[in-house]
Design brief:
Structural class: alpha+beta
Strand order of the largest sheet: 9-18-17-16-12-15
Number of strands: 18
Order of helices and strands: EEEEEEEEHHHHEHHEEEEEEHEEEH
Number of helices: 8
Radius of gyration: 26 Å
Distance between the termini: 56 Å
Shape: elongated
Helix content: 10-25%
Length: about 425
């Protein structure tokens, strides 16, 4: 019998999500685990895998549509079953999924051949977009990107796609900022840009964080000369180049194990302590900020950790993070050192209980152990913590352990 597939709750407590793009079409056979659709949440595009086996009979939702969790999205037929013998009268009523009965003429399917196709073919041999300026030739655009561009009056020919084979995807349109007109710049005009889902989510979560979490801050200064020397020595022979941020994340994981009372989160009526170190890494993307979580940092070799961080950062920038990659962790790292920032503090990303703000390593005058003035490379780090979970003494112990790891960096190779 035909089966109805309904919009899943791809993120906890979600009531709705956007069906961004279909990954299959009418007449195609699917098996359990095959990619069925891309579903967009506030922070990521999640690839939804089929939970049934059969043939796609009818797509019930246009790409780009916001769908309530539990509403029907596709009809899947058994082998040899005819869509004309299937009723779709109750698909929009939120009834329990099950066999369909009472044959009536089927509604016109979303998708299929002809002008109603749901996605455009990828350009052969890659994108036909030039490196800059106006694109020439055929444009390859996802349906949702085309709709957003039309609504905002954006000329798609001005965009370079970051999707597969140069396809223009949603975040390319949302990240586009038109150049101000001469008149606007002369008279001090302005332009209101509607909030993206991600920017709205960031605003809500950070407002919640600052208004409900009692932050306090602990700052320390790391003498980073030995750290930078070790990095240079590793990169002279390692197959993969290690960044300062890789070493910082490794040290954060090691410090969590040295001071386990800091490896915790607020759990409402309890405090949850973790045995392993799952550390989130802040990644800037065109439409905001994402914090994918690296699991089990304490058990990863430095080269493996570096590869994991690069993988999630690339996925974040391409809009292809899975929702589970954004969940969990007790701690985060935000590094603005590459921008020359000398010191800053970061806002905790709930439910995590801490975030480390890492600044640039710069030469500074210091007093050595012998009392003599010298020049050293110094990096400021500021720990923001949730005072409900971590007290001042614990925060001081943690940051002392972290600084000691960076100032004796060979220990990171043994951790």
């Amino acid at each position: 019998m035909a089966q109805i597939v309904r919009m899943p709750a791809v993120i906890a407590n979600a009531t709705e999500a956007v069906l961004s793009e279909w990954l299959t079409g009418p007449g195609e056979t699917i098996n359990v685990g095959d990619p069925l659709a891309e579903i967009e949440t506030d922070k990521a595009i999640v690839e939804y895998a089929a939970e049934v086996t059969g043939t796609i009979g009818q797509l019930l939702v246009e790409p780009g549509t916001t769908v309530v969790v539990g509403d029907p999205i596709v009809v899947v037929l058994e082998a040899g079953e005819d869509l004309s013998a299937v009723s779709v009268d109750e698909l929009g009523k939120g009834a329990d999924p099950g066999p369909l009965a009472d044959p009536t003429p089927a509604a016109a399917p979303v998708g299929g051949a002809g002008p109603s196709e749901i996605s455009e073919p990828s350009p052969p041999g890659g994108s036909d977009a030039p490196s800059g300026g106006r694109r020439e030739g055929r444009l390859f655009v996802t349906p949702i990107a085309r709709r957003i561009a039309a609504r905002r009056g954006i000329d798609l020919a001005l965009l370079n796609g970051t999707g597969p084979n140069g396809r223009i995807v949603r975040h390319d349109v949302e990240a586009y900022r038109a150049e101000p007109t001469a008149a606007a710049s002369t008279v001090g005009g302005f332009k209101d840009v509607p909030l993206t889902g991600m920017r709205r989510a960031i605003a809500q979560r950070l407002t919640e964080s600052k208004t409900t979490i009692p932050h306090f801050y602990v700052t320390a200064h790391v003498r980073a000369d030995r750290l930078l020397a070790l990095r240079q020595e590793i990169n002279a022979s390692a197959p993969r180049k290690i960044s300062v941020n890789d070493l910082v994340v490794k040290a954060v994981g090691a410090a969590m194990l040295e001071v386990p009372t800091a490896n915790a989160i607020w759990n409402g009526d309890s405090i949850r302590y973790f045995e392993g170190a799952d550390v989130a890494v802040a990644v800037a993307v065109p439409s905001g900020l994402l914090t994918p979580v690296i699991r089990g940092v304490q058990g990863l070799r430095l080269t493996d950790l570096s590869e994991r961080i690069a993988e999630v950062a690339d996925a974040a920038r391409a809009g292809r993070l899975q929702q589970h990659q954004l969940e969990g962790g007790s701690f985060a790292v935000s590094n603005l050192g590459m921008y020359g920032v000398t010191e800053f503090s970061a806002i905790i990303n709930p439910p995590q209980a801490g975030i480390l703000a890492v600044s640039a390593a710069k030469p500074q005058p210091v007093v050595g152990d012998d009392g003599q003035l010298a020049v050293a490379t110094v990096m400021a780090v500021t720990l923001s913590v949730d005072h409900r979970v971590i007290d001042g003494a614990v925060a001081a112990q943690w940051i002392a352990a972290f600084v000691a790891l960076l100032e004796t960096p060979v220990r990171l190779l043994l951790a």
